UniProtKB/TrEMBL annotation:
Domain of life assignment: Bacteria
InterPro entries: Spore_III_AC, Spore_III_AC/AD
Chain ranges passing through the membrane: 7-27, 33-53
Keyword flag Membrane: yes
Organism of origin: Cohnella pontilimi
The protein, known as: Stage III sporulation protein AC
């Protein structure tokens, strides 16, 4: 299981982009849309983290079951 630094940069990049879009939409008075963008960004990052956790648990399983 090799976690690339690029994955961390992708998550950070998504966070920065979502924060900028949220700020712009909030300044425009579209707070509902800003909140939805934040939720969508959170869900995208959550899926990325879940995939990484799946790889981690698979690696732990192979280590302890000696496969």
């Amino acid at each position: 299981m090799n976690i690339d630094v690029s994955t961390i940069f992708q998550i950070a990049g998504i966070g920065i982009i979502v924060a900028m879009i949220h700020t712009v939409l909030k300044q425009m008075g579209k707070e509902d849309m800003a909140h939805w963008i934040t939720v969508i960004g959170f869900v995208i990052v959550l899926f990325m983290v879940v995939r990484l956790l799946n790889d981690l648990f698979r690696e732990i399983k192979t280590i302890f079951l000696f496969q």
